[in-house]
User: Fold this.
Amino acid sequence: MTLRAGALVLADGSTFEGELIGAEPRGTGRVASGEVVFNTALSGYQEIVTDPSYAGQIITFTYPHIGNYGVSLADFESRRPFCRGVVVRELARRHSNWRAEAGLDALLRAYGVPGIAGIDTRRLTRILRDHGAMAGALGPVDDDAGTAEPHHPHLLAAAEAEPGTEGVDLVAKVTTAAPYTVSAPGDTARPSVVAYDFGIKLTILRTLAQRFRVDVVPASTPAADVLARRPAGVFLSNGPGDPAAVPYAVDAIRGLLGEVPVFGICLGHQLLARAIGAETVKLPFGHHGANHPVRNLASGEIEITSQNHNFAVDADSLAGRATMTHVNLNDGVCEGIRLTDAPAFSVQHHPEAGPGPHDSAYLFDEFEALLTGGRPSLRNGAGNGARTGGGPVGADRLPARVDGLPAPDRGVAGVGA
Assistant:
């Protein structure tokens, strides 16, 4: 891997010099810009990089050594990465794992994602933690008129011009262009669910396909078109950016409430809240990681959860329209709601755990019970989400094959393309 001198500059002028990795930045002046956030997960870097919820953002990994086990086609969470860039302390010089088909650098190059390594990610994380997520830009500095210039003015200008994610409809950039169906092979007796694709992760689709026949529809699909499919329930997926910038989704959800059971995750949770008149707010630096403690207010149990969001539901604005079911123990943010006058509920965290713990997997069982008239569980069983007549729900419990999942656009550096 040829090292290329580069730098990351934040909008406040903070500068980090290192070596460029991944693809050459394609923006004006070979600069990549976006909202810089940090993720505290210790593993699962491929799932994080390919999570569509990172559209418009540059991902900083707080764990210092990234890329050691390579990448695999099986670990994609979408058809391609949508993040603007990747920041690491140290990129593994060589990967080693029996599942690996290529290295992380090869994946970044294959999909046009630039990155930077060799910087002090601890200092960067402290800045973002103390001052909030902010715009940044990364790119080469070898052609900078003065490599002696400490602030690299072309990068600072790009960072200052970056609009960030607030007020921007990023869902339109990641949603599917046309409906498609996902199901376990040979099973036609399961209930039908319509899943809105606001940036849906493939692990969510696999988990839903364990229980339902899933019709995935674009984010702009009107409620009438969804109801015409006569689904047993509707799922609202995760996705990137500001829920206030997706009014068409809020209108559609409002038309579904009371007509069919609804379950939302992450952005779907925020959109459901806005559909009942609640407000959403932008958090200082969001929740990005796989170890966030959340209390289930019904059972009192604490679940360790996977999270990825910058916006959240304002609990004070629920005003009797819904009850809060989960709360984040780090900062008191609303992590779940259940509507008082319609069969609908949602959570801010990711119970599908791609990557992350499986403590909250029981929420898919509660959705299944809501659709089939069964009795939902109020706890997460023996630690992984107990299903009726079965053991824990996790990656090992997913169908051996799922028909209809979208494949990665180009594979991994030509492997499996």
